[in-house]
Amino acid sequence: MKRTLLALAVVSLVACKKNDDANAKTSTSVGDVVSGAKTLNNLSASMDDIEKKMKELKTTAPATNDELKSILPTTALGLARTEIRVGDSSMMGLASADAKYSDNADKYVEISIVDGAGEAGSGMLAMLMMALKAESEKTDAEGYEKTTNFNNVRASISEKKNGEIMESEIQYLVKDRYAVKIEGEGYTLDQLKAVMSEINTSSLK
After folding, report:
1. Which helix (H) or strand (E) holds 85?
2. Given the DSSP bridges, would you call strands 108-115 and 96-102 parallel, antiparallel or unpaired?
3. How much is the pTM?
4. Is 64 helix (H, G, I), strand (E, B) or coil?
5. How high does pLDDT run on average in the chain?
6. Strand partners, 153
7. Do the Cβ atoms of 67 and 96 come closer than 8 Å?
8. Could you give the strand order of the β-sheet that contains 137-139, starting from the edge strand earlier in sequence?
9. Neighbour tally for 171: CB within 10 Å
10. Span 133-183, pLDDT tens digits
C-alpha cells in the first residue's frame, strides 16, 4: 500500500511540472522509466522518515510572525529590503514570511519562508520532502531546472534567461521543518546562492 501511495506521489509530482514546448517528445523513453524508478526507490527508502517527521510536526506549534520576521536580513546581495510581509498564509493554517530586495532598476531578490509545523504545514512539508528526494531535471532553450545537492543541501534549483535577464531560484529545507525559497532576477544561480548564508536561520527551533 505504501509503495502504491509513493507511486501516486511520483505521478503527482511529475504532473505538476510545466508542460514541455510543442517540439518536446510526447512518448515515454527508457530514460524516463529509469528516472521514475530511481525516484520511486528514493522515496520508498525515505517514506518512514517523512511520516515520522509529519507526525512530530503536526503537534508542534508554528513559529510566531516575529520569529520568522527576525530571520529575514535587512539586505541581500547588497540590495536594500524594500518590502516585508508576515502572516499572508495564515488563512491556510501556515506560518510564513517573505521579503523583497531591490535596486529599483533591473535587479531584485525575494526570500520566502514557510513553517512546516501544524496540520497544514506538515502536509506541505511532506510534499516538498518528496519532491526534493526525486531525481528530476529539465533543460530547454531558456535554461534548466533540477533537484540536486547544492551548496551542501538538497535543493530544487533553476536558472533561466528571460530575454537578456537572468532569473534564478533555489528552494530547500532548513532543519527539516522550514521551507525556504530564494528567487532572483539579474543574478546567476551561483551569485544567488550567497543569499543562503545571509538568512539568519540559527535562531529557528
Report:
1. strand 79-86
2. antiparallel
3. 0.77
4. coil
5. 81
6. 150
7. no
8. 75-76, 79-86, 96-102, 108-115, 178-185, 165-174, 153-162, 143-150, 137-139
9. 18
10. 888 999 999 999 999 999 999 999 999 998 889 999 999 999 999 999 999
